[in-house]
Amino acid sequence: MLIEKVIKETLELQGFRIASFKKTTLGFLFKLVADRRYKPRCGVCGKRAIYRDTREERFFRHVPLWGIPVILSYAPRRVICSICGGIHIESLPWVSGKHRLTKAFACFLARWARLLPWAEVARMFHYAWGTVASAVKFVVGPLCHNY
Fold first, then answer.
1. No. of H helices and E strands in the chain?
2. Which of 82, 107, 109, 131 could in theory staple to 127 by disulfide, Cβ–Cβ 3.0 to 4.6 A?
3. Domain spans, the chain
């Protein structure tokens, strides 16, 4: 389907695939699953690791398409890492840490926040002001640590 191609172009999905898509009252819901051809990567060091188990499903907000919210659902796997030791959540390339916004959506909101007041951006996209603030903090944060 064409809409799935748009999502694949805006996300880094190597090691993952879109299992299903449906239109809900909340918007477009894409269910992501792990691609069995790839080994999971450790979320701490990024090296390949051994699958242990799967956590509960998490939902991530992505860039809206034509004003319709896009939600990604994925049940992250826990892995046993022999490099850094311990059990960690696998690396999810479309999101950073425990954020519920994709990297693309955080950049999208931060760009709008450069042009308009944060409260106005939040009103435009029907999100809380804190969501816009965390998106800006995510985008600007790594840059501020270098100075």
1. 4, 7
2. 131
3. 1-94, 95-142
